[in-house]
Amino acid sequence: MPATLTVVLDSNIYIFGIARVMPSCEALLNVLSRGKWESRLRVITPHLVEREVTRSLEPIGLSASKLFYSILADVPWSGVTYEAPPDELMLKYLELGLAEEDAVIAAFTEWLGAKYLVSENRHFLEELKTEALQVVDAAEFLNMIEAGGILACTEKRVTRF
Amino acid sequence: MKANVVQVLPDGHLALPEQMKKAFADVKTFWAESRDEFIVLMPLERTGEESLSASEALEEMRQMVARAGGMKKTPQEVIEGLRAIRKRIWETEYRPRYAEVLEEYYARHPDRRPR
């Protein structure tokens, strides 16, 4: 049975993809929501990301939040994680140069064993260098999925450990 | 029970008044969401209602955005808006949990303290 690859999508991916502001984010959400992932891919969502997305969607109507929860409840998404990451991981990402509010997202990503943090936020893309996780933008992650690289990476990771 | 007043029962459950019973009679689940000054309970699933798949929900949301006239912001403005929301939620809901460890960290590394 192939290992499950776990990823975190940053709030900007959702907003760009839902509002069709950025074609790569739109395509990524399409691929994730329409694919048959079974247990090969799992998208985890920190409470902070959920709050950012629902708050951003408020202007288009209250039911937009409800629809967003329908996405989070369907495979490959696995709901919302409310727990906060441990102190030492927060400090690790502060030490790596992130702002406090970004450090908590990176810490969450590592804490829950996610291999990728998908974001269009250049603060993450340019500033975060760590072996624990990889920050990629939507286009890069989409290429990995379409090229089958995700499964290859997962298998490689399993072999290494 | 008075109309339109939600009561908190001793066990922590919320009780809706009789008049509201009909409106929520077929609701199976509520989602509780914390807003700035109150908590919103959203009917999430209804009896006899098929729950939406992610792709159906995504499509509906896109139609809502289109009906609202689209996103009237540039990508950079969206990113900045989200960063502002993240900072606000971090400050009010998350930072207090880490306050002690952050203070210890900044005491050791005063140059890292945010200005």
> What's the average pLDDT of chain A?
85
CATH architecture of chain A: 3-Layer(aba) Sandwich
Largest sheet of chain B: 2 strands, antiparallel
Q: What order do the helices and strands of chain B follow?
A: EEHEEHH
Structural class of chain A: alpha/beta
- Enumerate the strands of the largest sheet of chain B in spatial order, edge to edge or round the barrel: 1-2
Topology pattern of chain A, helix = H, strand = E: EHHEHHEHHEHEHH
Question: How would you describe the overall organization of this protein?
Answer:
The complex is a heterodimer of chains A (161) and B (115). Chain A has helices at residues 11-18, 23-34, 47-57, 63-72, 87-95, 100-111, 122-127, 138-146, 149-160; strands at residues 5-9, 41-46, 77-81, 116-118, 134-136. With 161 residues, chain A is an alpha/beta fold. Chain A has a single domain, classed as 5'-nuclease (Rossmann fold, 3-Layer(aba) Sandwich). Among the domains of chain B are: 7-51, no CATH class; 75-109. The longest helix of chain B has 34 residues, at 75-108. In chain B, a hairpin with a 5-residue loop joins strand 1 and strand 2 (14-15). In chain B, the strands form two sheets. In chain B, strands 1-2 form a two-stranded antiparallel ribbon. In chain B, strands 3-4 form a two-stranded antiparallel ribbon. The radius of gyration of chain B is 21 Å and the shape is flat. Chain B has three helices and four strands, in the order E-E-H-E-E-H-H. Chain B has helices at residues 18-21, 54-67, 75-108; strands at residues 7-8, 14-15, 27-34, 39-46. By secondary structure, chain B is of the alpha+beta class. Chain B is 45% helix and 17% strand. At the A-B interface, helix 1, helix 2, helix 3, helix 4 and helix 5 of A face strand 4, helix 2 and helix 3 of B.
